[in-house]
Design a protein that fits this description.
With 563 residues, the chain is an alpha/beta fold. The protein contains 17 helices and 10 strands. Helix 3 packs antiparallel against helix 16.
Length: 563
């Protein structure tokens, strides 16, 4: 028997009560509206009969109405057309999917090739390729260094490649983010670095306007005006480049290279005066070579960052690594934070973050998370996210820390006296020193007490050659290819049923043969079979390992420039 639906009928008492409540509510709303002074909107009285040109006005009003209706109809038709187009596209996509499934392994192979092409743009090998293009194309190469740790931003492989490339290639050092370092420390570093390469003190402009941005906006964005957005060291750098161009009697190309977060793209933007290159706090903004025309005689070549070699120290990998903090594992980030805290002054860190004494990094991160309000469910401190945030602060332009230059001048083995003289040959070093002094005097600096003392690890090894890059497949790449793998597994499963039937028939034949043959023959056959099987397996494994090295082109995304 079917169940009857519940009746919606109410008792009269209940119905009248509801009606009474509604009346009371409406009365209350009207009272509040009266208090506010809101009145009912007046109806349009229309054109009075005594008004001159009444007929003309009415005609114009009718025409306006007709135009509005026509516009509405046009919009409706356009919407319908777009909807039909979308439907057709979806139908095509569905048909393509059905075809791919029917084709099987061939279609999956093609789709894999497409994904590999897309991923190759973000791969470490493509970064090396683009970096090499910049080095080969440029006449002058600017190696950008973070003033807080200049030695940790130098790459010996890059410097050696430029020096030993031959021709008239010159290497200049640009000491960026000089406003985050005490004045005395900056002067020491300038004196140390100028003995090896011509060095320019620079402070790139932040909060640069984009070409596409509107000049006047109704709603103003919140801008931190306490941070200086001016640029220092432009005249000095442009003078050096123009003088070199005059000696060469040609338009020069200037390549800007360096590790992530040193401010490569921001230097180009400040020289141009417009946001020509994309910059951001996330790593992996610059992925390929980008040409920016400064004037008739100078072209700037922006490059992706140098890849830090995995054999480097944990601290070097934490600060100079190309891996994005958001995608990297929590263990790697915690190791990096631990290395930073071990190489910096504990008391100054406590003063900067306003945190009590801590025993280890986990306790420090827990205290910092509680202070910043970064908590999980149940008030548990979010240690992983606060560690990522701290790494971003140290690689970005938030924290002021400084490292001391080496006591004795020991140039690397590839920098002989002849090579140093060759690099300094076409530049006016006296003018450079004067301009650097002007920039040093013009800026405001943090006090030595407020800047954290940091122990530098020294030069960081980088991989420039494409062949030496050893990549690990990224997580999202595996997720991309997992769907295709599932389809293949389904096909293999259907094929495996047929294989099992064949295998059962073969086993029956083998059993009949074994019954006929003697025990000695059986032993000999089994021994020879095992031996041959082991040999074949060994050869297959070798071929697989050899093939794997050539086809491994996995991808990753990284690098940010100082904003």
């Amino acid at each position: 028997a079917e169940l009857k639906k519940a009746s919606k009928r109410l008792t009269c008492h209940k119905r009248y009560k509801i009606q009474k409540k509604i009346r009371e509510h409406h009365r209350k709303v009207r009272k509040e509206a009266k208090k506010r002074g809101r009145k009912k909107p007046k109806k349009d009285p229309g054109v009075p009969s005594a008004a001159p040109f009444k007929e003309k006005l009415l005609r114009e009003a009718e025409q306006r109405k007709q135009r509005l209706e026509e516009l509405k109809q046009k919009q409706k038709l356009n919407r319908q057309k777009e909807h039909e187009k979308k439907r057709k596209l979806e139908a095509k996509k569905n048909a393509a999917k059905i075809q791919e499934k029917a084709e099987g392994k061939e279609s999956s192979g093609k789709s894999k090739a497409k994904t590999n092409k897309l991923l190759d743009k973000n791969s470490e090998k493509s970064f090396c390729r683009e970096l090499k293009k910049v080095i080969e194309a440029s006449d002058v190469i600017l190696e950008v260094l973070d003033a807080r740790d200049p030695m940790g931003c130098r790459c010996p492989q890059l410097e050696q490649a430029v020096i030993c490339s031959g021709g008239d290639k010159k290497l200049l050092l640009v000491l960026n983010k000089i406003d985050l370092v005490p004045k005395e420390n900056l002067e020491k570093w300038l004196n140390y670095l100028k003995e090896e390469f011509p060095t320019v003190a620079f402070k790139s402009a932040t909060l640069m306007k984009d070409r596409t941005m509107e000049q006047f906006t109704k709603r103003r964005a919140r801008v931190d005006l306490s941070r200086n957005t001016e640029c220092f060291g432009i005249k000095c750098l442009l003078k050096l480049l123009q003088e070199h161009g005059k000696t060469q009697n040609k338009a020069i190309q200037v390549g800007v290279v360096g590790f992530p977060n040193v401010g490569k793209s921001s230097i180009i933007n400040s020289l141009k005066g417009v946001r020509a290159c994309n910059v951001g706090l996330t790593r992996g903004v610059t992925k390929s070579m980008q040409i920016v025309h400064i004037d008739k005689h100078t072209k700037m070549l922006d490059s992706p960052s140098i890849i830090a070699d995995p054999s480097n120290n944990v601290l070097a990998l934490a600060l100079r690594s190309i891996i994005d903090t958001e995608e990297s594992g929590s263990a790697e980030v915690l190791e990096g934070v631990d290395a930073i805290l071990n190489h910096s002054n504990k008391q100054q860190v406590m003063m900067h973050y306003n945190i009590p004494d801590f025993r280890n990094t986990e306790e420090f991160l827990a205290l910092l998370a509680q202070k910043r309000g970064m908590l999980k469910r149940g008030g548990v401190p979010d240690v992983e996210n606060i560690a990522k945030l701290l790494l971003c602060d140290w690689t970005g332009a938030k924290i002021s820390y400084h490292s001391q230059p080496p006591e004795s001048q020991r140039p690397p083995p590839y920098l002989t006296e002849d090579k140093i003289a060759e690099m300094q040959e076409c530049f006016n070093l006296k003018n450079l020193e004067e301009e650097n002094n002007k920039t040093v005097q013009a800026l405001k600096y943090p006090s030595p007490a407020s800047s954290i003392i940091f122990q530098s690890v020294g030069m960081v090894n980088g991989t420039i050659e494409e062949n030496k890059v050893t990549e690990v497949p990224s997580e999202w790449e595996n997720l991309e290819t997992s769907k295709e793998g599932e389809e293949e597994e389904e096909e293999d499963f259907t094929e495996s049923d047929d294989d099992q039937d064949n295998a059962e028939e073969e086993e029956k034949d083998v059993k009949e043969v074994n019954q006929v043959s003697s025990t000695l023959a059986l032993a000999l056959v089994s021994l020879t079979h095992d031996f041959l099987f082991l040999e074949s397996e060994h050869s297959n494994s070798l071929s697989f390992s050899l093939d794997k090295t050539t086809d491994d082109d996995d991808a990753y995304d990284f690098n940010t420039d100082y904003v």
